[in-house]
Amino acid sequence: MLTAHDLSKRFGVKRVFERVELEVARGELVLVTGPNGSGKTTLLRVLAGLAAPTGGELVRPRRGEIGFLGHEPHLYRELTPLENLALFGRLYRVPEHRERSGMLLERFGLWHVRHERVSTFSRGMQQRLALCRVLLHDPGLLLLDEPFNALDADGAALLDRTLAELADRALVLATHDPRRVESLATRRLALA
Amino acid sequence: MTYAADVAALARKDLLLELRAKETLPAMLLFVVAALTVFHFALPRGTGHVAALGLLWIALVFTALLGLTRAFVPEREQGLIDALVLTPADRSAIWLAKTLAVLAFLAVAEVVALPAFAAFFSAVDGRTVAAVALADVGICAVGTLTGAMAVTGRARELLLPLLFLPLAIPVVVGGVGASAGAGGRYLGFLVLYDAIFGLLAWASFEYVVAET
């Protein structure tokens, strides 16, 4: 699904990461770990195609096959959850996206606030909605950057269950606290 | 059909955001009316019609700049450009939708500005309205492209005027020329400008938001 060979990224003279080797097939969860500033976020952005690598080779699926969760929830704050998901459902050509949006909102405990603007949400609720957005188009490759951020215990448990159910996808998950998902990880990539 | 539907969905989103936030349009309306009011009192009596038209075009260009400065605020503040470019939708649809939205806001501002100009200075004829309509298309086309360039860079508030205003000069020249009755060739010039720069902006937006 995703292959990276000798991947490197630098911004000017600053080296973010070098000589990264990565291969992720369906059914695998690669845990990317490292301290703050080690390049986890930049690596995921490169893998998603949001930043170009400075060197190396990268083969990834086409755009519609990738689900990317970054540090920002990527939600329009003045739109409601249904409106946000309707927009991305349209852009990702999700068939019957209204039904799928409803299912995801219910799953992540946001159905009761589906008509309220995202600007009224807590950070944890925004993170849950961001997960709905990422899963809406049922991507084969998921790139998740600190997905447990801001989630309460219920939200984290929901995400645990969801990750287990996504065992047939290719997942790359970056976190500075790997204990949560270590049991699900098939491989580990440590950035210095 | 899919491309048109994408553009419609994105444009509808921008209009809905403005309807709720009410940040861009009130600012544009306030600015253009304030500018024309100041010009009215600043210009001495007996100032020629052409000079007054020049000031109208200055007011319109800077009103457009105000709208363009705010056009990509949601995408910038929430990092939504990343989310939009990851979708399979053609990236030029993002440009076209944003252009249409800014065009709508500018048109609303001009619905107020032109009667205000007529009240303060002199009547607005059909040639001026046609010139304004054609200029709007060119302004919004290049303005949206330069707005996207500025949003991905640093010193955005400085970068947008630096990129946009030189490109807007031909529009001002054409607009003043057409309004001042210098003939249909200025209107033709505006049509040509819109076609060339519209096409260039549409084709190059992909590279503005491409990975760096």
Task: Please describe what this structure looks like.
The complex is a heterodimer of chains A (192) and B (212). With 192 residues, chain A is an alpha/beta fold. Helices cover 30% and strands 26% of the residues of chain A. Chain A has 5 helices and 8 strands. In chain A, strands 5-6-7-3-8 form a 5-stranded parallel β-sheet, with helices on both faces. In chain A, strands 2-1-4 form a 3-stranded antiparallel β-sheet, with helices on one face. In chain A, helix 2 crosses helix 3 (97-107). Chain B is mainly α. Chain B has one domain (2-208). Chain B has helices at residues 2-21, 24-42, 49-71, 73-77, 80-86, 91-120, 126-151, 156-179, 184-208. The interface between A and B is medium-sized, with 31 and 24 residues.
Short précis:
By secondary structure, chain A is α/β, with parallel strands linked by helices. Chain A has five helices and eight strands, in the order βββαββαααβαββ. Chain A has two domains: 1-61 and 140-192, Rossmann fold; 77-139.
Order of helices and strands of chain B: HHHHHHHHH
Kindly, what is the distance between the CA atoms of the first and last residues of chain A, rounded to a whole number of angstroms? 25 Å
CATH class of the largest domain in chain A: Alpha Beta
Helix content of chain A: 25-40%
Unreliable spans of chain B:
none
How many discrete domains of chain B?
Answer: 1
Number of helices of chain B: 9
Strand residue content of chain B: under 5%
Write the CATH architecture name of the largest domain in chain A. Answer: 3-Layer(aba) Sandwich
**Count of distinct strands of chain B:** 0
Topology:
The complex is a heterodimer of chains A (192) and B (212).
Chain A: E1 2-11, E2 14-24, E3 29-33, H1 40-48, E4 55-59, E5 66-69, H2 81-91, H3 97-107, H4 123-135, E6 141-145, H5 153-165, E7 170-174, E8 187-190
Helix pairs in contact in A: 2-3
Chain B: H1 2-21, H2 24-42, H3 49-71, H4 73-77, H5 80-86, H6 91-120, H7 126-151, H8 156-179, H9 184-208
Helix pairs in contact in B: 1-6, 2-3, 2-6, 3-6, 3-7, 3-8, 6-7, 6-9, 7-8, 7-9, 8-9
